[in-house]
Amino acid sequence: MKYLYYPGCSLKSTGRAYEESMLAVFGALDIPLPELHDWNCCGATAYMAISELKAFALCARNFSLAAEQAKGDPDVSLVVPCAACYLGLNKAYRYMHEHPDLKGTIDKALQSAGLGLADGVRVRHPLDVIVNDIGLDKISSKVTSSLAGMKVACYYGCQIIRPYADFDDQQNPTTMNRIMHALGAKTLDWPLKTRCCGGSLTGTIEDVGTRLSYILLREAKLRGADVIVTACPLCQFNLECYQTTIGRMYHDRVDIPVVYFTQLMGMAMGLDAKALGLQRLISPRPVIKEAVPVQGGQHVGA
Amino acid sequence: MSVPENRTNGTPKIGVYICHCGINIANKVNIKETVDFAAKLPYVTVAKEYKFMCSDPGQELIQQDIRAGLIDRVVVASCSPLMHEATFRNATGEGGANPFMFQMANIREHVSWVTFDKDAATVKAKALIAAAVHRVSLHRPLEQTRVPVHPDVLVVGGGIAGIHASLTLANAGKKVYLVEREPTIGGHMAKFDKTFPTLDCSACILTPKMSAVRAHPNITLWTYSEVVGVEGFVGNFKVKVRRKPRYVDEDLCVGCLECIEACIFKKGKFPDEFNQGLSQRKPIYIPFPQATPLVAVIDPETCAHFKTGKCKKPCADACQPGAVKFDQTEEIKEVAVGSVILATGFKAFDAARVGRYGYGKYPNIYTSLEIERLVNAAGPTGGELKMADGRKPKSVGIVHCVGSRDNNTNAYCSRVCCMYSLKLAHLIKERTEAEVYNFYIDMRTPGKGYEEFYERLLKENVHFIRGRVAEINDWAMIDEEKGHLIIRVEDTLIGRVRRVPVDMVVLSVGLEAQPDADAVRRLFNISCSHEGWFLERHPKLAPVSTFTEGIFLAGACQGPKDIPDCVAQAGAAAAEALALIDKGSVELEPNTAFVNEEVCAGCHTCLNVCPYGAISYIKEINKARVNGALCKGCGTCVAACPSGALQQNLFTDEQIMNEIKGVMNHV
Q1: Is the pLDDT of residue B223 over 70?
Q2: Is B515 left (phi over 0), alpha (psi -120 to 50) or beta?
Q3: Given this model, what pLDDT does residue A156 score?
Q4: A295 occurs within a structural domain
Q5: Considering CB atoms only, which of A171, A215, A219 is closest to B356?
Q6: In this predicted structure, what is the pLDDT of residue B5?
Q7: Does residue B400 sit in the same domain as residue B508?
Q8: 3-state secondary structure at position B635
Q9: Chain A residues touching residue B355 (CB < 8 angstroms)
C-alpha cells in the first residue's frame, strides 16, 4: 500500500494549516506521505459544470502521474484532504469504471499528453485512511496530552459523504467523532453535522452563505461546544473567517474556534503548535490553550 | 419397462402451428418466413400459422389434421408452456393422438417480448421451432396416472388470513391443521386498536373468530409451533411440525394466571413482545387477555429456573391443575395433508433504518405499531397517549411512507399506511385534542369508504402537508421551537421548506416480507419476488395459487394488503383448496424414470440416491427396477447412473440431445 498526497489548490493557500497539520500527523505516525509531483487542478466545480469530459481528463492525469510515481506498486491511493478535490477525483474514478466509452475518450486525451490511463489508483480521504488503515488503537497509543475535558463539534460538511458514502454513513457520519474519542475528547450530539456551511455562496451571495454558517455556529455554541472541527478547507474558512461579520449581522456572539481535525490530533499527540499551523488560526478564543497545554511556540489567541 | 423405441408407428408426421398471438409475436417474428422454414424441417408434413392458436378454431386446426391422418405429432410455437401447454396437450389428445406427442416452442416470452431486432427474433424463433420438431420426432405415447387428494389441509400462520382460511375450510367439513409460530393466534390484527375506515374495535371483531378456531372440532390448533419439513406433492404432502415446549401443559392449563402471580419476579421485567416492548412481562406470561389458546408460556431465555437452576418454581406450586411442566420437551408431529395455505404475514419496517428520522434517538418518536398499543385501552397505558415526561402531547406529526416508496429502503407502496395514518390521526385527536399533522407524499385511499374517511379527517381539522419529511431532530432554530421535535419538510404545495415543531412523532412504517420468508419459500418449494413476497402463479388470474400445485397463498405474505383484502384472499385460497379436495384426485406428469435393463450393470448407485425409495434391486437378474407409482420424476438417479441405463420419460437423453441438435443446426 502506497499513499501519495494530493494537495489541490486550497491546501497550498487558505488551507495551509490543514496541509501542515496533516503532514505532521502522518509523520508522527510514521506513514510516508510524499506529495504527488506535478499534480494539477482537480477540475473542481467549475469544470464539472461546463465540461465533464475535460474535468475527468484533468483528474485522470493525476491518476496517471500517481501510477507512474508509485513505481510499480499496484495498490496506490491518492490521499485527498480537500472535500471538493476528494469528490471530484472520486467522481472521475467512478465514472471511468462505470462508463467504458468515457474511459476510452480519456485514454486518448492522456495519450496525446504522453500519459497512459491508470484506472486502479484509489481516491481516499485522510479520515478514511486514519480510521480504517492506521486504526484508532494506534492513534490512542500516540496521545501524550489527552483532550479530556474538551467538547468538540465534529462538522463533516457535504462532499465527503455525498453523494458517495465510501467510508462512512451518509446521514450520520462518525469517523471524525471516533478519532476525537480516541484523543480523549467528548463529541457533541448535534444534528447539523452534515448541513451546508454556505459553500461558495459566501463569495457570491454573501447573505445567503453567511446565514447558513451562522446556523451552524450558533447551534454549536448553544450546545456547549468548545471548538468546531472540520475536514474541509472551505468549511473551515466559512465558519472561521465570517464570525465577526455574522456577529454584526445577527447581533449575536458566535466566536468559537474552528480547527482541522488533524490539528487536534497533532495537539493531542504533543506535536509543535507551529508545525500544526495553529498560528494561522484567527479564532479569538483561548479555549484550546485552556483545554490542552501546547508546548512551546505560538498559540491560538496567545 | 422396455426401452422406448425411437420411432413409433412408422415415420413421424409432424404438424407445426405458429401462433401470431395477435401482434405479440407477429410484430417481431416474420411469420411467413418461419412457416416456410418449418415446412422444410425433417418429418414435417403440415406447417400452418394462425392468429390465436389457443382459441377454439386454433385448436380445431390441430385436431382436424390429426383426424385427417396428416400428422401424428404436434409442435405449437406460441407462448410459455406455463400458459398453454395443458391446452395444446388436450387438443392433441382430443384429436386422437396421445397428448404427449406434443412439444411447445416458446416464441413469445423467449423471443418476441425480449428480442427487439426483427431479424434476430426470426432467427431465434426458427431455432426454437427446429428444436421442438427434432425433439417431438422422438416422443412416444405416455399414460398419466391419477392419485387421490388427501382431504386435510395445512394452514401456516394464525393471523386474520390464516384464521379466516381455517374457519372457511373447517365449516365446509374439512380437517385443518393451523400452525402458528407465536404462543397465540391473532397476528398483527390483535394488536390494533381500531380498524379503518369503520373504526370497528379490532379485538371485538377478531376475538370471536379466534375463539371459533379454538372450539372448532375440525381444526387442530398448534401454536408456538413451526413447520420444519415438507415432502411430497399436490394432494399428498407429508408435513413435519415442531411443537416448541411452552413448559405449560395446554390440556391442563385453565388460564387462571395464578402461576404468573406467583412468579419470583414480582413485577414484569422483560420487554413485552405483544406491546412492542412498551411494557414489561414476566418470564411466565400470557400475551394478552384474549390470547388463543389461553395458556401460559414460559420463556426459557428469561426464566430464573432455566437461567440459574436455583428458582424454587413457585409458579408450579401455584398451579392447581399441575399444568406447569419444566420437563416438557419439543415434539415433532407428522401429518399428511393434500394442500397447504401459507398465511405467514409481514414484518413492520424497522424505523431505525432511516436514521434521519431520529427513531430510538429522541424520546416521543414512535412507530405506528407502537402507537396502536398506546392508544389501545388494553395497551400498556390503558389507552392514554402521554409523552415521556407524562404530559399530553399538544401537537403530533404523523410521517407517512417510512420504509415505503423510497429507493433507499423499499421502492413499493405499502398500501395500508395512508389509511392507518388517517385512523391514528383520528384516534390521537380524539384522545388528546392535539393538533395533528400528516406529512404525506400522495394520499392513497382507494377502497370502499376510504376516500370518505379522508374527507372526514379533513373536516376534523387534521392538518395535511404534502411532502416527504427530510429530517426530524431537536435542533431549535427559534425560541418557539425549543423543547420540541422539529420536522423539516418541503411543503410541495406551497413550494417552501417548512419546520414544524411537534411534541410527538408517529412514523408510519411500511410492510416488509418476513425475515425468514426465503427459508419458508424453500421449505414449500415456491418462489419469492425480489422483495421477499411470495410469488403468485399469475398476478391477475391466479392470485392465490403458486407455481407449486397444491400450495396456496393468503394475506400479506403475498404482498402488503389491508384486513378486507387479507380476508378476501384467505377465502379464495380456501376455495382453491376445497376445489382440489372435491375433485378428489390429481393427474401426475408421466415423467417417471425407467431402467434400460440391457445396459444396467446392477451397481446399486441409483438405489442410494433415490430420495423416495422408488428403486429396487432384482437379485435374480442383477438389475435395478423403478416403481413408477413411487417415482416423483426428480431425475437424480438418471444423473447418477454411470452407464446411462436410467432414463426419464419426457426427458430421455436422446430427446434432449436431438432438441439441442435442432437449435445448433439452425443458428
Answers
A1: yes
A2: alpha
A3: 97
A4: no
A5: A171
A6: 44
A7: yes
A8: coil
A9: 169, 171-172
Distance from CA of B119 to the nearest CA of A (A): 27
- Using the Cβ of B477 and the Cβ atoms of chain A, whether some distance falls under 8 Å is answered with yes
Q: What whole-number distance in Å separates Cα of residue B395 and Cα of residue A103? A: 55
Percent of chain B with pLDDT over 70: 99
Spatial separation of the C-alpha atoms in residues A193 and A187, rounded to whole Å: 11
The answer to whether residue A301 is domain-embedded is: no
- Rounded Cα–Cα distance for residues B640 and B648 (Å): 12
**CATH code (residue A65):** 1.20.1050.140
Q: Would the CB atoms of A215 and B477 count as touching at under 8 Å? A: yes
What residues in A contact B477, CB-CB < 8 Å? 215
- A192–B475 C-beta distance less than 8 A: yes
**CA torsion sign, B42 to B1 to B636 to B237?**
positive
Q: What pLDDT, on the 0 to 100 scale, is given for residue A283?
A: 64
Check whether residue A109 and residue A149 sit in a common domain.
no
pLDDT of residue A44: 76
Are residues B525 and B564 both part of a single domain? yes
**Does some domain include residue A302?**
no
| Longest CA–CA separation in chain B, Å | 98
Q: Which of residues 354-393 of B touch A (CB under 8 A)?
A: 355-356, 358
Count of alpha carbons within 13 angstroms of residue A104, beta-carbon side: 3
Q: What is the pLDDT of residue B9?
A: 54
Nearest to A156 by CA among A211, A244, A86: A86
φ and ψ of A186, to 5 deg: -95, 145
Which three-class secondary structure string do you get for B556-584? HHHCCCCHHHHHHHHHHHHHHHHHHHHHC
Report how far residue B471's alpha carbon sits from residue B475's, in angstroms, rounded to the nearest whole number: 11
Q: What is the pLDDT of residues A191-223, one digit of tens each?
A: 999 999 999 999 899 999 999 999 999 999 999
A172, A192, A219 ranked by CB distance to B355: nearest: A172
pLDDT tens across B85-130, in order? Answer: 999 999 999 999 999 999 999 999 999 999 999 999 999 999 999 9
For cell 439441442, name the residue: B660
Q: Do B475 and A219 touch (CB under 8 A)?
A: yes
Residue of A169, A191, A215 with shortest CB distance to B473: A191
What mean pLDDT is predicted for residues A42-56?
84
Give the H/E segment covering residue B357: none
* Residues A282 and A152 reside in one and the same domain: yes
The answer to which of A284-298, B103-117, B334-348 has the lowest mean pLDDT is A284-298
Residues 6 or more apart whose CB falls under 8 angstroms from that of B85 comprise B104
* B183: its cell numbers: 404462543
Residue B33, pLDDT above cutoff 80: yes
- How many structural domains does chain B have? 5
pLDDT score recorded for residue A292: 47
Site from B356, B478, B481 to mutate, A interface, most A CB atoms within 10 angstroms: B356
Same domain, A274 and A182: yes
Taking the C-alpha atoms of residue B55 and residue B50, their distance in angstroms, rounded to an integer, is: 10
Asked if the C-beta of B471 comes within 8 angstroms of chain A's C-beta atoms, the answer is yes
ipTM of the complex: 0.77
Poorest-pLDDT segment among B192-196, B257-261, B314-318, B587-591? B587-591
Mean predicted lDDT score pLDDT of chain A: 90
Structural domain including A263 reads 136-290
B516 and chain A in contact, CB less than 8 A = no
My answer on whether B367 and B478 are in the same domain is yes
Q: All 3 cell numbers of residue A142?
A: 500516540
Residue A215 distance to chain B (closest CA, Å) = 8
Q: What is the pLDDT of residue B613?
A: 87
Smallest CA–CA distance, residue A213 to chain B, in Å, is: 13
**What sign for the dihedral angle of Cα A113, A119, A121, A123?**
positive
* Inter-residue contact A275 to A298 (CB < 8 Å): no
